[in-house]
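Project channel, design review

CF: Before we commit to the Rodentibacter ratti constructs, I'd like one complete example in the thread so the newer folks can see what an input/output pair looks like. Taking Putative N-acetylmannosamine-6-phosphate 2-epimerase.
RD: sounds good, go ahead.
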Amino acid sequence: MSRLTHKQIFQHIQNGLIASCQPVDDGPMDTPEIVAAMAQASVIGGAAGLRIEGVENLKATRPTVNVPIIGIVKRDLPDSPVRITPFLNDIEDLANAGADIIAVDGTLRPRPVDLESAVKKIHELGCLAMADCSNLEEGLYCQKLGFDIVGSTMSGYTGSVVPEEPDYQLVKDLKAAGCRVMAEGRYNTPELAKTAIEIGADFVTVGSALTRLEHIVGWFADAVKSAK
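CF: and here is what came back for Putative N-acetylmannosamine-6-phosphate 2-epimerase:
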């Protein structure tokens, strides 16, 4: 498919659900063919866009769907806690594989490539730039640098204990500051996803509750066991 214009991308995903098709690492569903199938099923179900991790997964998915795709690459680095699209060559690979939006870790932590260079590279390659942030300070910094979308993606994931609830306040604060906001992180029921839009998010990403079968089955299995 030909690349959508930036205006078309935003028109397509505004107030919409983004399905994050990221299977459990090294699990039985962790293959490009299955990720592409997850993506197609998500679009049939009504997803306005997709979030796809990995260049090979993106290459397999891009020809099968006509909705906007957020592309990321996850890496475990020895000298940085930043995992999401840490290198400029990752950005290039994602753009070449057909990503419409490229997301990077937007936290203010030690990183191999500064955020200013990352957003510049994304825009040079004709893609929209998204920053996965953990707090308001980071979101405002990324907004100032020119990121097109600011996500609450990393809220709760930079410390030791992960909260159970989504960070509604961060979504509200980012929106009040004039950001285009992606609500992401623990929006794992239809009601929570609906709330995200009601409180001001422009779009909401849901992952585990849609595409990580091991997690979903585990939730039900644990609940059933607790009834004994």
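RD: helpful, thanks. The chain has one domain: 6-227.
CF: The first helix runs from residue 6 to 13.
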